[in-house]
Amino acid sequence: MFGLAGLEVGAIATIVPGVALVWWALLTMGVLAGVIATILAGPVFVLTVCGVVAVGKRMVLPNTPVGIYHSRSGLGVRKWIADKLLEFSLTFTNSLYATLYTVPWLRMLGAQVGRRAEVSTAAHLDPDLLVLGTESFVADMASVGAATFANGRVAFLPTSVGSRAFVGNAAFVPAGSTLGSGSLVGVGTVPPDENVPEGTSWLGSPAMHLPLRQDSGSFSEQQTFRPNRRLVLQRLGIEFFRATLPASVLGLRVSTSSCWHFPPSPVETTSRCRPWSRRCWRSWPASRSSSTASGSSET
């Protein structure tokens, strides 16, 4: 009961700072400032969602214990709440994933992620028990080290992905797996029960060993694993807008629609009051009331 209430409160809390920023700008500096604040509300919303999810996860399940436990125990309930919080992140800030900002975000949740690792929209994972090696890659909707539920019990095991290992789209890497450095787990693949050796490639479910890996051509380290600082900064700038613009555009659409519902009153128009000025915004309710009252008296 308290968990459900907390999730509802958390969902509402994610929009409060952005809405407060917009209304503060509207009431103190006018409509134009409110529109500008709406654009800034996008980054505020993304940061707020990350903060709510990270703090909530720390409060509910600060550390995931290794072992097998009853799924209907207190730990099982806390695990369910933590998973729902991570769903908040995937739902509300989906554009944050598959960017350079994903790795710091996973580190904030407790995962150990090496330098220059790439993580897309990983669907299911337990950050506390996950290790991603340097320059590893996890593709869209891959499940890496998620807890296993069976027969009323839940198993938590550490999972490790080696340096420059590749986990393909929608692959399922069970908890407790170890992928060797340079290994490849293909699209929709479940790796073998034993640890995946270094440099090997696997495809399918059950997994089939691929003796040869298709050659993708010759590319330098600077074009693949180790881009220079300028390229990294360019990508950070582009992906910042990619991660925050959806929320900004949505907020801007809502705010402009609201403004159309509240046009300047006739009194303000005749007095040449500019709609975006602070004086106009503050005087609008009073002038509208006075004009409505005068219209009623004439009737």
How would you portray this structure in words?
This protein has 299 residues and is an alpha/beta fold. The chain folds into two domains: 1-93 and 243-284; 110-215, 3 Solenoid (UDP N-Acetylglucosamine Acyltransferase, domain 1). It has eight helices and 15 strands. It has helices at 2-13, 16-29, 31-60, 74-92, 102-109, 229-261, 266-270, 278-298; strands spanning 67-70, 112-113, 118-119, 130-132, 137-138, 143-144, 148-150, 153-156, 159-161, 166-167, 172-173, 178-179, 184-185, 201-203, 208-210. It has a six-stranded mixed sheet, with no helix packed on it. β7 (148-150) and β8 form a beta hairpin. The radius of gyration is 26 Å and the shape is flat.
